[in-house]
Design a protein that fits this description.
Elements (H helix, E strand, L loop, with lengths): L17 H24 L1 H9 L6 H30 L2 H18 L8 H23 L2 H4 L5 H28 L8 H26 L11 H16 L6 H30 L5 H29 L1 H21 L3 H28 L6 H29 L4 H19 L4 H7 L5
Helix pairs in contact: 1-5, 1-7, 1-8, 1-10, 3-5, 3-9, 3-14, 4-5, 4-8, 5-14, 7-8, 7-11, 7-13, 10-11, 10-13, 10-14, 10-15, 11-12, 11-13, 12-13, 12-15, 14-15
């Protein structure tokens, strides 16, 4: 990883040390445990089946709660990004958001049958904190890596994230499967995993807070100026980032394809248990293996995108998503489901890594937190659009998860169409990164 490090001509800016690259990538190890256990594998199905008692509206309520959290992240991202750049506070805000996510996750232990309001409030809190931290850690990326190594470092981060998710999820599987031997039950074991997830997030993030350094020179601005600038960035986002049109086109592409990715992440365990009849343990096993393939996809595509080009690598991963959904539409036989899930896993790691790296390539120096705040807006907009559409379709069709998944494939089709309009080399020129 040492060859990825950025060197600075300015003597006032410290050089990047190898341990900082590991500390940066290690944060994905920490926060992926939350999204995998709470959002993807365990608490989502627990909410639908236990907290909401398998009500027809349960999936929609789950996706609506997540959509509200993403809306909150979207609303605050520009202002937080500008504040972090102006005052050099990315690391401080990252620590605060991580702690809020961990404390709220631990509080999910108190959610039992009928505690719908409490569960929704805590999910909104924790997922808002998680999304905010995701934006802040991404804003460090252009400061740490040279342009030709951005894809690899982003890929390492996603790969570490999936490794962390696999290890935590494996521990959760062991705990859930041993519930009967302890005289407990599956529901109680799922609640216990919320405590384990909270502790893991805090401990795994400590190296990031201790080793990662700020390199943006503070240039404090009055709050009124930051507020006005954040409103301007909102208008720029809605208008397609007018000063960086290629970045604006790519952000539109992200909204489309990430809507599909976000939907799969949000409803994976719900789909396997409600539509395919998997048990909780079977769902965990499937998602556990998928995270391993996702780690491989992120690592391999991290190198591949630096060779093939970010746009080509991303297009390849989106085509893979369509293949996976097509296989699920053809058959619900267990071998086909496992094959489709692992193809989706590879493409999950690849598409997320490639997207973040491509934003880094199109980002002007000195505007990292701002641009990655806009990236966060695009991702969170997609996380509102996709899961909410899935939840609405499943509710109006009386729980037809197959129809909802088929509609999800359209997001990947739209992503490919929008990606074709992005000129990466022109975007590098606009960002001042081309030689």
């Amino acid at each position: 990883m040492s060859r990825l490090r950025r060197a600075y001509a300015d003597p006032g800016v410290p050089p990047v040390r190898r341990r900082e690259l590991w500390a940066w990538a290690g944060f994905d190890f920490a926060n992926s445990g939350y999204t995998t256990v709470v959002i993807t594998a365990l608490f989502n199905a627990y909410f639908v089946g236990v907290v909401a008692g398998d009500a027809d509206w349960a999936t929609f309520a789950w996706t609506a709660a997540l959509s509200l959290s993403y809306a909150l992240v979207m609303a605050t991202a520009p202002l937080l990004g500008l504040y972090a750049d102006a005052y050099g506070r990315k690391r401080v805000l990252l620590a605060a958001s991580t702690l809020a996510c961990a404390v709220g996750t631990a509080a999910l232990w108190f959610c039992g049958p009928g505690d719908v309001v409490l569960a929704i409030v805590l999910i909104v809190l924790t997922n808002t904190a998680f999304g905010t931290g995701e934006n802040l850690i991404a804003a460090f990326l252009p400061e740490l890596a040279q342009e030709e190594g951005v894809g690899r470092l982003s890929g390492y981060g996603w790969a570490f994230g999936y490794v962390g998710a696999v290890l935590l999820l494996a521990g959760c599987l062991w705990w859930v499967q041993g519930a009967g031997d302890r005289g407990s039950d599956t529901a109680s074991a799922v609640r216990d995993t919320m405590l384990a997830t909270a502790v893991t997030v805090v401990l795994a993030a400590l190296p990031t807070f201790l080793l990662l350094r700020e390199r943006v020179r503070p240039a404090p601005r009055p709050f009124a100026d930051l507020w006005s600038a954040s409103l301007e960035h909102w208008r720029a986002m809605l208008g397609g980032a007018q000063d960086l049109p290629q970045l604006g086109r790519f952000l539109a592409c992200i909204v489309a394809y990430q809507a599909g990715v976000g939907t799969v992440i949000t409803v994976a365990a719900i789909y396997t248990q409600q539509a395919l009849g998997f048990t909780t343990a079977e769902s965990i096993q499937l998602i556990l293996v998928v995270n391993i393939t996702a780690a491989a996809g992120a690592a391999v595509f991290g190198h591949l995108q630096d060779r093939l080009g970010h746009r080509n690598a991303l297009a390849l991963s989106l085509a893979g998503w369509l293949l996976a959904i097509g296989l699920l539409a053809l058959s619900d036989a267990r071998p086909v489901v496992w094959a489709a899930a692992n193809i989706a896993g590879i493409c999950m790691g690849a598409s997320q890594s490639a997207g973040r790296a491509m934003v880094g390539v199109l980002c002007p120096q000195g505007r990292e937190a701002e641009v990655f705040g806009l990236w966060g807006l695009a991702v969170k907009a997609s996380m509102i659009l996709g899961p909410l559409a899935y939840g609405g379709i499943s509710w109006t069709t009386g729980g037809d998860h197959e129809a909802a998944l088929a509609a999800t494939s359209l997001f990947f089709v739209a992503g490919l169409a929008l990606l074709a309009r992005v000129d990466v080399e022109h975007g590098r020129l606009q960002a001042g990164r081309a030689p």
